[in-house]
Design a protein that fits this description.
Helix 1 crosses helix 2. By secondary structure, the chain is an alpha/beta fold. It has a single domain, classed as Rossmann fold. The chain has twelve helices and eight strands.
């Protein structure tokens, strides 16, 4: 059931901004994950993409597992207690705050998203352990100043202490014309030494050449809402300039610290998604 965030009234309620006739990235992703918070347009779009990339559901599931393993590593091994998760998506099981607070109950998490369907689920995101804190911000990744200066972020996260910046499966929705590299640099510049960047990104490196070229052509043309801008390994690596990559470095999300996952792991081609975690020196 879709509900509005606390205090949302009048014409600007998140549910009033949801257009069920147009496919939406968050709802499409929810469909691939087996969720129920999607509509026919999302399912049709998801099925059309699955025709071109039959293992896309595997990719979505593996990306989600990468997020959970990355948060687990950052909370357990790196000792991170503050997380800034941008491009949150629709809540499912084992969200960032649930994983982090299961390891360290005092963990503090700020979620950021501008999708109406996610805003409508804000209550589900805003549950926290008594020792920790969770907040939600309605903002766009491409507006880092709004994110960094938002009072809810400043009440929840201490930007003088290390923060894990989570950009999982969101950077590929930012076209080159919006300079995603500058956006990431601005966010990282606001975080102190000892902070981390955890990110994943769809790639064309492992796809058949004709499908990769077709996807890039759609992205260049502006494409439909939620078009995915596939990038190469070298292009994804650029987001980590000046950072210290955590082992095993930049790899398929299905392989990143996945020793405890069911074997054999999906291939790089089946997933077509890079992931990495890196520390700001």
């Amino acid at each position: 059931m879709i509900t509005d965030a606390p205090g949302a009234t009048g014409p600007d309620r998140p549910s009033d901004r949801i257009d069920t006739s147009v496919a939406h990235p968050a709802r499409r992703y929810n469909y691939w994950l087996g969720g129920k918070d999607n509509f026919q347009a999302d399912r049709d779009s998801g099925d059309a993409m699955a025709e071109r990339f039959p293992t896309i559901r595997i990719s979505a599931l593996e990306n989600r597992r990468f997020l959970q393993r990355a948060v687990g590593h950052l909370a357990r091994e790196a000792g991170i207690r503050q997380f800034l998760d941008i491009g949150t998506g629709i809540p499912t099981a084992d969200n960032t705050h649930e994983v982090a607070q299961s390891i360290a109950a005092e963990s503090r998490v700020v979620y950021v998203d501008n999708d109406p369907i996610v805003l409508a689920h804000a209550r589900a995101l805003l549950s926290s352990s008594p020792e920790g804190a969770t907040a939600y911000i309605d903002a766009d990744l491409r507006d880092p100043e709004r994110i960094l200066g938002h009072p809810d972020l400043l009440r929840t996260i201490d930007l003088s202490r290390p923060v894990a910046l989570m950009l999982v499966a969101v950077l590929h929705f930012v076209p080159d014309g919006d300079d995603p590299y500058a956006v990431v640099r601005r966010l990282l510049d606001a975080l102190p030494s000892g902070s981390y960047l955890a990110a994943s990104h769809a790639t064309h490196d492992h796809l058949p050449a004709h499908i990769g070229e077709e996807a890039k052509a759609v992205a260049r043309s502006g494409g439909p809402h939620g078009v995915i801008n596939l990038r190469s390994r070298a292009e994804f690596t650029g987001f980590f300039d000046g950072l210290e990559l955590v082992e095993p470095g930049l790899t398929s999300v299905a392989q990143w610290r996945a020793e405890a996952e069911p074997q054999p792991r999906p291939s790089a081609m089946e997933v077509s998604m890079y992931g990495a975690v890196a520390r700001k020196p």
